Amino acid sequence: MLKLRRFLKDYKKECIIGPLCKLFEAVLELFVPLVMANIIDVGINRLHDAGYVLRMGLLLVLLAATGLTSALFCQYFASKASQGAGTKIRRALFEHINTLSHTELDRLTTPSLITRITNDANRVQQNIAMIIRLLTRAPFIVIGSLIMAMTINLRLSLIFFGAALLIGVTLYLVMTRTIPMFSAIQKRLDKIGLLTRENLSGNRVIRAFSRQKQECDRVGDAAEELSRASIRASRISALLNPVTYAVTNIAIILIVWFGAVNVNIGDMSTGDIVALVSYMTQILLAMIVVANLVLLMTQGSASAARINEVLETEPSIKEKTKEFVPTIKDSPKIEFKNVSFKYSDGDDVLSDISFSVKRGQTVGIIGTTGCGKSTLVNLIPRFYDVDPAHTPTDGGVFIDGVNVKEYPFVQLRRQIGMVPQKSVLFSGTVRDNLRLRSRDADDDELIKALKIAQAYDFVSKLPKGLDSKVEQGGRNFSGGQRQRLCIARALVGDPALLILDDSFSALDFATDAALRRALSENKGDSTVMIVTQRCSTIKNADLILVLHDGELAGAGKHDDLFETCGVYREICLSQQSDSNAGDKKEAAK
Amino acid sequence: MKNTASFLRVIRRMRRYYGLLLLALICAVISVSLTLLIPVLVGRAIDNIIAEGQVDFEAVIRIIALIAAALVGVSVFQWLMNWLINLISFREVRDLRRDVFRKLNSVPLSYIDSHPHGDLISRVINDIDAVGDGLTQIFLQLFSGVVTILGTLIFMLTINPMIALAVVVLTPLSLFVAAFIGKLTHRRFTEQQLLNGDISAYVNEHVGNQQLVKAFSFENEACSEFDELNQRLFTVGFKAQFAGALANPGTRFVNAMVYAAVGVFGALTAISGALTVGQISAFLTYANQYTKPFNEVTGVLTQLSTAFAASERVFEVLDSPDEPDDSGAKSAPEGCRGDVRIDDISFSYTPDKPLIRNFSLDVKSGSHVAIVGPTGCGKTTLINLLMRFYEVDSGRILLDGVDISTMKRDELRKCFGMVLQESWLFNGTIMENLRYGAENATDEQVIAAAKSAHAHSFIRRMPRGYDTVIGEEGSNLSLGQRQLLCIARAMLTDPRVLILDEATSSIDTLTEIRVQKAFAKMMKGRTSFVVAHRLSTIRESDVILVMRDGNIVEQGAHDELLKKGGFYARLYYSQFDTERSS
To answer: Minimal Cα–Cα distance from A531 to chain B, Å?
Structure first.
């Protein structure tokens, strides 16, 4: 919780004035009984004066009104500081999540991050408000009462200290016991988030297999676990109030008893006992507030810890500099030098890959399922870093002669137009989506990109054209339309390096062919990398890389590879049925 | 207020916990009455301590023993009440989650397609959580509050009925203040929950597709878009919280006024001699106690308002209509042959954009049907209709001569084996995922299916084989591998009718051909629908349907269609034309 205090930095004023207002209100409240006593003692007993009573009554109204004003100020500052801090926390979380790389995101999982950014941040925010509103008042009353008790009878005030100590110990015990419980609760909440998200995204499959009941059971179990965990925690936290109550009342019993003894020997007056008891009652009321506050803080600190966990997660892939680095002239556009890669727990996905691509060339990457094609292209924008243990120090991925690790992210990634395997669009309009690479692209550029991607036809037919709404993920477009929009999105702003990761898979062959033709006509001196399953797609590429089980089985042009590379020939022959007579002749060569 | 009505509905839903609630109420009665009793006892003990040498120790001890007993009672019953109320709220939260989730699995698919998932997740997580908080608070405050009010009322009535009446009538004024403020603010609280949902949806999209954000260096823009939402939440949240927090000082002010009025009128009465000083002081004490619950309820008004707004969002989901009940519907035909007849159907997702119009098709059992056509022509829609993910607007689809709209959906779907392009796997082991459609399959059967789908070899190479846990997004698998697993999963169900919707698009052709062979073997004598664009898949089909703009423009076998030289032939030749020219 304390670690999050930096988010209150801009709200210092609110954090100081708020509690002070509350304190002022508490002080005013102390006057009320005094005024009332005056009404009785002076107004009734001594003066029998109705006018005096009314004047004192007016004073009470004034006190209440001033109290109200200062309470309102306190609420204002508390709301401002807590909501402000909550907003800052959410923002910091989102910003930090954006710097994390895959490894960390896979570990934290999206649903858990959603819960943290909403539910956990809200809890912390609530806490801050509570603390501002209640923190000063309770200690003020407790300390004030303690001091008063000491002035009345030093020895009996020891009972007060004993009680305070006992309550402190209880608070501590309950807190330490329940903090782990509350973090377990939030974790279970994550699980429900995960299952819900999974269920929503897989709803078609779930229904196709008629698994709705089992899915409901799965969530039912998770909800049951969560409820059990919460109840378990509440069994302990529900102790707090009764224990506080018991301790203070035991203290009262002790005061009465020792008071009786003292009065009997003439050390003390009965009035002193009454005063001590009433101070103890004051402390009780304050402590109950504190206990509830502690309870909230326990829950809040579990949430704070979860927020901190995200904020403290170091991205495994970091940029070395924000400054643009100079590139080396006349070096290949892309160069892989002895690159090896593996995911955290597994065998090498790529081993010892080397090749180089000149500016303006088109490269095809082909190979069997799971051979590492996508992994290879993902190394270029640094979604993952090469395996340092198996790649020599002078090896790695180079763009324009500079190791990708040396670039700031923006310089590296802004020159790349990436079309990922999964065609996902963001909710918004078609125009918003197309402008992902360059925010200020004008409609002409967008239309040009759409035309190359063979998407202009259907976009222009939409009732609202570029302003048509895209629902989340782009689900209101068919798979093929989505894929073409994704391609258009990557083309906007003429990327120096275009990476198409199996991006034609949902296109029929006519569209596929037209798209590739338009692409080669318009690509200028862009370097293009195409990952594909189809030989025909890359037959004319300047360089074809054949991957097999993470190794480079061959590199070269179609004709050479067909002669020399067994894997490639096999793939081509398997697609012969796809090809027409002309292709067959060529294949037979 | 609509909000309050929704929250009351939550309480009405909780019928099965009414017994426990009664128990909690009893605990509240006991602990609160004992709480009120203790000060009286303490006072009496002090009365026995008069002055030096005048202390009745015997009486003091007796009273102290009573206090101790009351104390134990208060502590135990207070704890029980707290615990019971927590128990009830958390159970209701669990029930709500289950029900919402069940609802999400029984609404028409169009509901899920048209609602942002992040927002739905936020309802399941945040809104229900807020409802739970609200329940706990309201019961805790309500129970001990009501008992305190009643208790102090009795004491006050015994002292002076007139003034007591005044207090009783005046204090609820504070509730009017609270209700008024609540009414003013409820829109903001609704808005606040709505924005929470929006934020959740935004995070779901942009964190879920982080790779895309990174690829386009979109981080800064994403942050500023998020900031916009976040800032709006700040404005609304601040207003809601502040307005909600006004209620407490407001009621306390009203109550302070009541207190002052009681004091003044009491004093005036006393001057005229109708009331003793001791009575006034006792009266004031009880008046103070009496107003406390009113103050406390408004102290949690922010939480209550959030809960009210949240409950409305929860019921929005719970109230959305289910898919029509089909418990009385026919069973799917035993050992279904797989004759599919589509009879003059029309369908559109939105009324203003007609998609499929007057479409008919007759597929004999055992035929292999391929569906081709430009993207967006309605191929996937046809499958949505066959599986009854969506219902036709007019016309009917017959399976073995039975109108599928009269069948039980689950049984109908069990006749089909479906593999979609988007390969969904859940967060579990590979074995669990493969068994998804056939829970009772033996390990051997699972492995056999994995072998036919050519997934066995890569599964075996995984660090933990079939027990490897698939990550949330399946991130440890390539798209092709995921598709192979989906194919194995479908194979294991041994379907009567097979639907492949671009099911092999990310698999390399070598493997694809082998998988096709396995399918062909499995589907001998059974019907299959294949949406694909690779000719290797299509050429062997009995019938090729060429779709365009929601209609079949051509149908026939590959060679026939080529000879005909129509749209199919154009589609087919087009790719080679471009290759020559490029």
So the answer is: 11
Q: What is the mean pLDDT of chain A?
A: 86
Architecture of domain B2-16+91-318 in this structure: Up-down Bundle (1.20)
Does residue A521 form part of some domain? no
Query: For residue A587, what pLDDT is reported?
Result: 39
Q: What is the identity of the amino acid at A115? A: T
User: Under a CB-based contact definition with an 8 Å cutoff, are residues B311 and B6 in contact?
Assistant: yes
Those residues whose C-beta lies under 8 Å from the C-beta of residue A328, and which sit 6 or more positions away, are: A400, A401, A402
Question: Do A157 and A283 lie in a common domain?
Answer: yes
- The CA distance from B208 to B472, in Å, is 10
- Strand-strand pairing, A543-548 and A551-556: antiparallel
- How many C-beta atoms lie closer than 10 Å to residue B390's C-beta? 17
Determine, for residues A265 and B52 on separate chains, whether the beta-carbon distance falls below 8 Å. yes
Closest CA relative to residue B434, chosen from B422, B451, B421: B451
d(Cα B107, Cα B111) in Å, to the nearest integer?
6
* Cβ contact, residue pair B535, A578, below 8 Å: yes
Q: Which amino acid is at A242?
A: P
Radius of gyration of chain B (CA): 35
Q: Is A185 domain-assigned?
A: yes
Q: pTM of the predicted model, to two decimals?
A: 0.83
Tell me the average pLDDT across A537-551.
88
More confident residue, B162 or A7: A7
Inspect the interface and report whether the beta carbons of B536 and A472 lie closer than 8 Å.
no
CATH T-level topology, domain B340-581: Rossmann fold (3.40.50)
Is pLDDT at B194 greater than 80 in this prediction? yes
Give the ipTM: 0.84
Rounded to 5°, angle at Cα A474 from A462 and B507: 115
Per residue in B442-455, pLDDT tens?
A: 999 999 999 888 88
The ranges assigned to domains in chain B are 2-16+91-318, 340-581
Residues of chain B in contact with residue A209, where contact means CB-CB under 8 angstroms, are: 413, 436-437, 493
Give the Cβ contact number of residue B455 at 10 Å: 29
Write down the residue that tokens 């990922």 correspond to. Answer: A420
CATH at residue A17: 1.20.1560.10
The band of A368, judged by pLDDT with boundaries at 50, 70 and 90, is confident
Three-state SS string over A528-588 comes to EEEEECCHHHHCCCCEEEEEECCEEEEEECHHHHHHHCHHHHHHHHHCHHHCCHHHHHHHH
Q: What's the CATH number where A447 sits?
A: 3.40.50.300
Pairing of strands A416-419, A497-501: parallel
Residue of chain A minimizing CA distance to B371: A508
Each residue's pLDDT tens digit, A174-233 = 888 888 998 899 899 989 988 898 888 888 888 887 888 888 998 999 999 999 999 999
Between CA B205 and CA A508 the distance in angstroms is 28
Beta carbons within 8 Å of B494's beta carbon, 6+ residues apart: B417, B438, B522
pLDDT (tens digit per residue) in B394-442? 999 998 888 888 888 888 888 888 887 778 888 888 998 898 888 888 9
Do A349 and A479 have their domain in common?
no
Number of domains in chain A: 3
Q: For B217, which of A109, A214, A413 is closest by C-beta distance?
A: A413
Interatomic CA distance for residues B214 and A214, integer angstroms: 37
For A335, the domain range is 331-415+497-504+527-589
Q: Using pLDDT thresholds of 50, 70 and 90, give the confidence band for residue B210.
A: confident
Same domain for A401 and A431, yes or no, is no
Q: How far is CA A507 from the centre of its chain?
A: 35
DSSP E strand stretches across B527-581: 527-531, 543-548, 551-556
Closest in A202, A343, A427 to B116, CB measured:
A427
Helix (H, G, I), strand (E, B) or coil at B313: helix
